[in-house]
Amino acid sequence: MAKRILTLNQISVLGLERFPRDTYEIASEFAHPDAILLRSHKLQATDIPDTVLGIARAGAGVNNIPVDECTRRGIPVFNTPGANANAVKELVAAGLLLGSRGIIEGNDYVDTLAGMDDKAELNRTLEAQKKQFKGSELYGKRLGVVGLGAIGSLVAEMALTLGMEVMGYDPALSVDAAWRLPSEVRKADTLSALFSRCDYISLHLPVLDTTRNLINAELFGVMPRHACLLNFARQEIIDEAALVEALDKKQLRKYIADFPTPALIGRKDVILTPHIGASTDEAEDNCAVMAVEQLRDFLENGNIRNAVNFPTLQLERVGGCRLAVTNTNVPKILGSVLALLADQNINVIDMLNKSRDEVAYNLIDIDTTPPDELLQHMRQLDGVTSVRLIGDCS
Ligand SMILES: NC(=O)c1ccc[n+]([C@@H]2O[C@H](COP(=O)([O-])OP(=O)(O)OC[C@H]3O[C@@H](n4cnc5c(N)ncnc54)[C@H](O)[C@@H]3O)[C@@H](O)[C@H]2O)c1
Ligand SMILES: O=C(O)CC[C@@H](O)C(=O)O
């Protein structure tokens, strides 16, 4: 039977074409989908049917998905790290330029001159008024980057090429990300040190329980008054009341962000774009292709790459059929699963088991198709969250 993929946002065709039409059905409405593919759609736990095996986010942030509930139900949530990083980096470059030069104000002013048909008079007026729109250069200024992952590291590199100094803060920096980082990036030990020393600050961290409202009144209080804050990460990272108060008190010069809210729209000291950080042809294609490939590998082989709540695990297919078993990460459960197979004289050909936090995940290749009763029995074992048979041994 064809696998059913429920799409909850518009997904690039280049990605969707990677689902073979003879083995997959794709639609934006399905009562019993095998998997969900989405972008920013806010997914409620109650909207995830029991048939769903995996969820793929074509993008980086997964705060629109109830990840804890998925983990509880044994559903891996995939994302596409780095696939849209260049698109965001380029918008941040634009944000830095909009924050340093009177581009928007100048453009708005020029629009007011529509209808002035005398070219000489137009030029005289422009030359007389342009001093209002003077800016300052980025060269030599200091950029603080909060979060030095896929996007933050590219932003740091881009700012260095503009001649800026770069300071970074990331207490959870992975070893791989540290290797990617240009050596010129100076480390800030605290957020407060970074906020107090930078002319521009750009946020590139995920929204988590620990980062919600992280940027608060205390940090706005130490910022230089000429500083500019860029937020192309998520609005929830900023304490909005504190931001509005800081703008009112002129504790920061400008806020440039991808997340409009009623309190911010229309302010002269705020520049807002409608969440278009990843809205390029290239990023949409990259994210969709990566999400689809990861989802297919999971549905067809049980392999897991780039899940935010499951361990990474890939086992080459060597024939036979495969059991994908998820359980809580406590002793003896795997032993009970294997004992059930041994009781039925089912031989294990190959096996891989890994854990991440409270989740343990096992791929077990066997040489005989197990009877349905055995799978039911396995599902009822204490601590087993899900059991899936992939393929057929016959
Ligand atoms: N505007 C957009 O359209 C758009 C597009 C892509 C991503 N994003 C947002 O940007 C975020 C980052 O994306 P990415 O691809 O760089 O992710 P990433 O996972 O590669 O990098 C995130 C970095 O943040 C760091 N971090 C975690 N907690 C931190 C903290 N308390 N302080 C400082 N750093 C911390 C992590 O260690 C990691 O290095 C995403 O989670 C998403 O919310 C927005
Ligand atoms: O899908 C999008 O347009 C936004 C994606 C972005 O917010 C992300 O977290 O990757």
UniProtKB/TrEMBL annotation:
Look up the EC number in the record and give it: 1.1.1.399, 1.1.1.95
List each copy of the ACT domain by range: 322-394
User: GO molecular-function annotation terms?
Assistant: NAD binding; phosphoglycerate dehydrogenase activity
The record ties this protein, via Pfam families, to: 2-Hacid_dh (PF00389), 2-Hacid_dh_C (PF02826)
- Please name the pathway: Amino-acid biosynthesis; L-serine biosynthesis; L-serine from 3-phospho-D-glycerate: step 1/3
Q: Which reaction does it catalyse?
A: (R)-2-hydroxyglutarate + NAD(+) = 2-oxoglutarate + NADH + H(+); (2R)-3-phosphoglycerate + NAD(+) = 3-phosphooxypyruvate + NADH + H(+)
* Superkingdom of this protein's organism: Bacteria
Q: Which CDD domains match?
A: ACT_3PGDH, PGDH_like_3
Its keywords, alphabetically, are:
NAD, Oxidoreductase
Tell me, what does this protein do in biology? Catalyzes the reversible oxidation of 3-phospho-D-glycerate to 3-phosphonooxypyruvate, the first step of the phosphorylated L-serine biosynthesis pathway. Also catalyzes the reversible oxidation of 2-hydroxyglutarate to 2-oxoglutarate.
Record PANTHER family: FORMATE DEHYDROGENASE 1, HYDROXYPYRUVATE REDUCTASE
Q: Which family does it belong to?
A: Belongs to the D-isomer specific 2-hydroxyacid dehydrogenase family.
User: What protein name applies here?
Assistant: D-3-phosphoglycerate dehydrogenase
Please give the organism. Answer: Parahaliea maris
